[in-house]
Amino acid sequence: MAFYLAQSQQTPDGIWKFGEITKISLGGKSGPLAKYISALPKEDNLPWRVDAPNFAQSHLAAGADSQMLWITDPTEPPLRVLCICGSSSSGTTDLNFNMEVLKESAGGYARTGAEISEALRLNGGHSSPSAVWTWAPPPMAIGAAVLGGR
Known about the structure:
Number of strands: 9
Radius of gyration: 16 Å
Structural class: mainly beta
Number of helices: 2
Distance between the termini: 26 Å
């Protein structure tokens, strides 16, 4: 699994076209998720949510035309990250990435109407200044859930 930032445009008929795609790192002590979470209120298990395009613009220096993608297999269509939800304790952060399932279509990618949600965890929380913010298994390894579909 890897996250990417892609310059994008959407055609009038809803087809996503992605230009330059750059691999990004969301974890790490000085990474964008650590900075975002550290700035939140210091209350355990307080749920939060951020739209992926807003997060990309404010924490990844992305342009307004950029999209966050999750690519697990380069031969498969990417998943478009819609939002990141989570809650933090002093030492861990549980995350949920909500993504749109895309399919190849007309030289780009079209929506399928399905969304997928992936649970992840970071070793680092709102009150852990010495945390390394590395990826860890989520509390319940249930895998991904596909929601919707048309």
